[in-house]
Amino acid sequence: MSDDVRVALADDQPLLRAGFRLLIDNTPGLVCVGEAATGREAVEIARRERPDVILMDVRMPQMNGIEATRLICQGNAGLRTRVLVLTTFDLDEYVFGAIRAGASGFLLKEVLPDDLINAIKVVAAGEALLTPGATRRLIEAYTELPERKVTPLPHITAREREVLELIARCRSNEEIAADLQVSMGTVKTHITRLLAKLGARDRAQLVALAYEAGMR
């Protein structure tokens, strides 16, 4: 059985899809398994092809990329499929909407080819990938909303809360270990427990839950 990362493309611009497909088809270890021009088609591809990763545009006809992401990640469209959102719109509402819907990554379409390939591999491996600039702005904007409803977290320990706060600041495992003066193994254990306690799919959803709990 091939160990290639199976990638699907969802974008309403044929030229962009062609460029992404050319990049993927010429990258060893990646294979393109389908294309979609609408959010509805993206959900259908997830059901039919079960790709490892879908590159998802935000603004598409019939169904936008945020709703398609929600159906893929929270429905039964493809339990293994991870969504990497690619958009030209660097707006906080899209960042938060994407990660809350279950996306594992968020990048602008201006990303360099090598960085996109790396992002696909990171997300396929089960990790989260968010652009640091967008995440910082999301923290600032979301925590300052006067009408924001703070959602209390289920019981987590004081140390787990510290780890969650650092995750929300886009700190890597290595940085968290250094900040808290603990081992990498300890950090990974805390993250595993947070995922289980909070019912989060991955690190990106931990970020969303932290924001909703009012963490900065």
Short description:
This protein is α/β, with parallel strands linked by helices and 216 residues long. Helix content is 51%, strand content 13%.
Provide a descriptive summary of the structure in words.
Strands 2-1-3-4-5-6 form a 6-stranded parallel sheet, sandwiched between helices. It has helices at 14-25, 39-49, 65-74, 92-101, 113-124, 132-143, 158-168, 173-180, 184-198, 203-212, and strands at 5-10, 30-36, 53-56, 82-87, 105-108, 129-130. With 216 residues, it is α/β, with parallel strands linked by helices. Strand 5, helix 5 (113-124) and strand 6 (129-130) form a beta-alpha-beta unit.
Largest sheet, strands/sense/barrel: 6 strands, parallel
> What is the 3D form?
globular
The number of helical elements comes to 10
Q: Beta fraction of the residues?
A: 5-15%
Number of strands: 6
Succession of helices and strands: EHEHEHEHEHEHHHHH
Radius of gyration: 17 Å
Biggest sheet, spatial arrangement of strands: 2-1-3-4-5-6
The whole-number mean of residue pLDDT values reads: 84
Distance between the termini: 44 Å
Counting helices, strands and paired strands, the structural category is alpha/beta
List unreliable stretches of 5+ residues: none
Helix content: 40-55%
Core attributes:
6 strands; single chain; 216 residues; alpha/beta
Q: Secondary structure elements and their pairing?
A:
Blueprint lengths: L4 E6 L3 H12 L4 E7 L2 H11 L3 E4 L8 H10 L7 E6 L4 H10 L3 E4 L4 H12 L4 E2 L1 H12 L14 H11 L4 H8 L3 H15 L4 H10 L4
